[in-house]
Amino acid sequence: MVKRSGRSRWIWLAVIPLGVVALALLALALFPWGALRTMAEERLSASLDRPVTIASAERTDRFSFHPTILLRGVRIPQAAWAGQGDLLNLATARVRFAALPLLLGDLRIEAVELDGMKIALVRDAAGRESWNNGKKDRDKAASRPAISTLTIANSSLSYADAKRDRSFTAALSADINRGLTLSGTGLIRGAPVTLTASGGAIAGVKPGTPWPFRAEIAGKAVGMTAVGRMDGPLDIGHLTAAVTGYGDDLRMLDAIIEAGLPGTQPVKLKANVRRDSPDWIVTALTGTIGRSDIAGHATIRKRDGRTRIEGAIASNRFDFNSLSSDEGLRKGALLKARIGDRIVPPTAIDLKSVARTDGRLELSVKQLLWPGSSPFRHLRGTLTLEQSHLKIEPLTLGLTRGRLDGRITVDQRKGGPMFTVDLTLAQARLLDFFPATAIDGSLAGRIRLSGPGGTIRAAIGRSSGSIALVARDGTIPARTASLLGQDVGRGVTGDKEEMAVLRCMVARLDVSRGVAQANPVVIDTSRALTRVTGRISLADERLMLTLSGAPKKQSLLRLAGTIPIGGTITHPDIQVPEQTKSAGGILKMLGRAIAGKQGAVAADANCGALTAKALR
């Protein structure tokens, strides 16, 4: 009897929990889910911070661990700032879900049937989005939808985005025959476009089954097409696609992809993309911008509110004017007409728009294109951006002959941009930079400048540092060499084809707060020795210089005194003294020559010492 009693207790101890579990499962299978309508309204209202209403909710089956709920009159109003109307207005929805995973807090929706749905998405100029109540977590990996069956009828979707100046309205449907389709019209920066999208039928599809899709935005001014597969139906966070895009400029295309790209010349691009939310991998990128071609790859990762880009960009032929839109070129032309030619470009260097972006890009250009002649032929560099500190280092600019090596940085970690350039010129030729002068010689140099400003031009205009250029062992037209020595006689009457020796041309400019002081500037030839004193304002590139030269032989007509040089770097104004333009002035020069009052002739300069000082 004792043993039977013990076995009975063990049996009951086993049966009771099983019975409890069985009763719980029975209750779950029979649960009247429609009774949770009020609780669902309250939780959705609290989550979205707006009054969500559901007119009715009822369970349509009696017993199942995969119950179906019929919802009628679902309404989610717009956020208060987004204006009147509803974010979502849904006539009916049939939703089948798995009940058992709910015991672990996991909601798995298996089938959805929607009818009479209207969705209106709004984003304002500040970037607030009506569908998430301003709560964004774009670093978070996207969840994978588990819907195996979806049908949509009599439904539409509208979108209005003030931040990117784009909008559209489209009809939306899904059934087992035609699959998912979207078709509508819209505007992108005022340009009309059509929108179409399609995907395979979602009917009995297992989660994780690859789902083909095609999406296209098409217009005269801008367009983009993506054809590929998502990892599962509607799994926009995990997809692979071939993408093509075009636009009147890159800024138009950026209204679609939102990468913060500037206005350019017309653009055509194509690439293969892989998305594993929140990251993107771009491969086989090719295309054209204006008359430039580009190719490359990139990986874009989002972590802790920051974006990191790693990749490479290469070009066979590249024109920097391709990076300016027609409007930008027009404004540049107007500015040039107003202030004249400038050597230093007005390129913007403010990093505020990429304050939350880091990364590394390898840059390579085989051939640089220019509107006129230029010694710059190719480019190679590594661009890194870390916490608002941009570096292009190492940087190499290949020349017709020689190269320019060094680094360029923009540091914006402590306020406004601080621009720094440190470049060394080697193995170059003077003639390649100034072909019109017919002056040649080996050319070396060093530029070290640093200054604050929102553009390169503004920063150089406030910079401090030094500029040094040295040309050695070359040639110079004999008449030019004589005139630089203020030898008017030989400069005017000499043989036009005769060449003199350029022993050295040494220019050292010490720069402080945008003012470059000559220290020294010397031109030494077989005909004369010339010194230039004064300063240059880098802010407006204006010259305030004085030239004084002496021939190395006595001259019949020698100009006394100094010659002022004004104007700008690109258009110097050599103020020829009036005495050279009149008979009286010439007679005076002749008189000084006869009287032996021309002054001493010049000796050769110590080119080695001058070079060492300039390039120190």
UniProtKB/TrEMBL annotation:
AsmA domain span: 11-148, 285-519
One Pfam family named in its UniProt record: AsmA
InterPro entries membership: AsmA (IPR007844), AsmA-related (IPR052894)
GO cellular component, one term: plasma membrane
Gene Ontology terms: biological process: regulation of protein targeting to membrane
Cited PANTHER family: DUF748 DOMAIN-CONTAINING PROTEIN, PROTEIN ASMA
Protein name per the record: AsmA domain-containing protein
Organism: Sphingobium boeckii
